[in-house]
């Protein structure tokens, strides 16, 4: 049995939140790029709900639209990109609902860092090389809060300690720090004002295995200690396995599956998710041939009709070439511990006999 996934359930389109556990809702979001060769529909009708205190992982191959989606959530989309439709509502603890699409530039400045923080890809390389770490912290804190310089300076050693760095790091320049230390500094800056939501884009990429482990451990501890909500974007499924509570799988600008981390890794439903999981190398056990996903991602300027994965799907059926599958709840697939449902956009689960009836 499959049920409709009403992304606005509990959240009216006015932005009034009737479900206190929700921090961010995305409804039918479309983010396109105008290019010489036509319109590139990088994010094409994404709906998602993020709960307070959870780590939501966004996974998918390169080019599937992960960064385009997260930059739109932060209202950082830049030309030739633009938001072509949809709604994003944000419900920070001490503020009323914020419509992130229509919010003014001034209001956005007021919530960035304080409520909504961003760790962009390669953020550790964006530290100012001519400023000591303490000054970089102060500049950022003073720009986004009413604190005095002295108050901001007093916070620095505590923040550094929270990410496992010694207080003397405050007096150092970025070139004196290793990659892992710089990434810890950028994370400390991102959490300085205790934001409700941190969006981290590939926070462990470009780090060696040892530092990757440290950053994963640290993000997990910070979430537990500060109760932060994190959207974690990475193509690295092993990072999701260790950090995420839920995972949203993106393919060709849309979400094809959303589920609890256990559900996604133990019993993935969508053939694309199954392909992603089967591409993860396993250590120990029998030697098996890595399967991977055949073919290439289609162009966002010309998505295939029907299910966008049908050109690569090992289980393709005639209707997959014509009918767009909706992201639907699969009944009886609730995670026992979290009580969360699993959502899948695949005709295998909308057929009677295969997954039940379609009662959308
Ligand atoms: N400035 C731009 N102009 C035109 N097209 C763009 C632009 N930025 C991204 N795109 C296109 O949008 C699609 C999605 O890109 P995006 O960077 O969001 O994917 P991604 O999943 O984050 O990939 P990666 O993991 O490699 O960062 C791609 O086809 C990309 O070529």
From TrEMBL:
GO BP terms: namely: peptide transport
Q: Which UniProt keyword terms apply here?
A: ATP-binding, Nucleotide-binding, Transport
Signal peptide coordinates:
none
- Listed name of the protein: Dipeptide/oligopeptide/nickel ABC transporter ATP-binding protein
Q: Which Gene3D superfamilies match?
A: P-loop containing nucleotide triphosphate hydrolases
Q: Which family does it belong to?
A: Belongs to the ABC transporter superfamily.
PROSITE patterns for the chain: ABC_TRANSPORTER_1, ABC_TRANSPORTER_2
Give any Pfam family that matches.
oligo_HPY
One GO MF term: ATP binding
């Amino acid at each position: 049995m499959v049920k409709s996934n009403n992304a606005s359930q509990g959240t009216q389109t006015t932005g009034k939140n009737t479900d206190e556990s929700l921090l961010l809702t995305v409804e039918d979001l479309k983010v396109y790029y105008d290019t010489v060769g036509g319109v590139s529909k990088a994010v094409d009708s994404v709906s998602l709900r993020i709960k307070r205190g959870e780590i939501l992982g966004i996974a998918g191959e390169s080019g599937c639209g992960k960064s385009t989606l997260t930059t739109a959530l932060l209202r950082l989309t830049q030309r030739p990109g633009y938001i072509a439709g949809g709604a994003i509502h944000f419900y920070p603890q001490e503020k009323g609902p914020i419509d992130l699409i229509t919010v003014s530039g001034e209001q956005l400045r007021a919530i960035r860092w304080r409520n909504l923080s961003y760790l962009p890809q390669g953020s550790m390389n964006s530290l100012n090389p001519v400023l000591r770490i303490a000054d970089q912290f102060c500049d950022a804190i003073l720009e986004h809060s009413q604190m005095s310089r002295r108050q901001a300076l007093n916070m620095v050693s505590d923040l550094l300690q929270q990410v496992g760095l010694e207080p003397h790091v405050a007096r150092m320049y970025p070139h004196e720090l290793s990659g892992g230390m710089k990434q810890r500094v950028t994370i400390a800056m991102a959490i300085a004002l205790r934001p409700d939501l941190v969006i981290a884009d590939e926070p462990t990429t470009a780090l060696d295995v040892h530092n990757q482990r440290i950053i994963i451990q640290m993000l997990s501890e910070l979430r537990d200690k500060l109760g932060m909500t994190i959207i974690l974007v990475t193509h690295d499924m092993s990072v999701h396995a260790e950090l995420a509570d839920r995972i949203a799988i993106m393919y060709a600008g849309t979400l094809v599956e959303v589920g609890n981390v256990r559900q996604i890794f133990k019993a993935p439903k969508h053939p694309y998710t199954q392909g992603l999981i089967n591409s993860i190398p396993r250590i120990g056990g029998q030697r098996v041939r890595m399967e991977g996903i055949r073919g290439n991602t289609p162009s966002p300027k010309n998505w295939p009709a029907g299910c966008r994965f049908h050109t690569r799907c090992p289980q393709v059926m005639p209707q997959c070439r014509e009918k767009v599958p909706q992201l639907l709840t699969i009944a009886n697939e609730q995670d026992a511990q979290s009580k969360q449902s699993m959502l899948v956009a695949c005709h295998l689960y909308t057929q009677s006999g295969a997954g039940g009836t379609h009662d959308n």
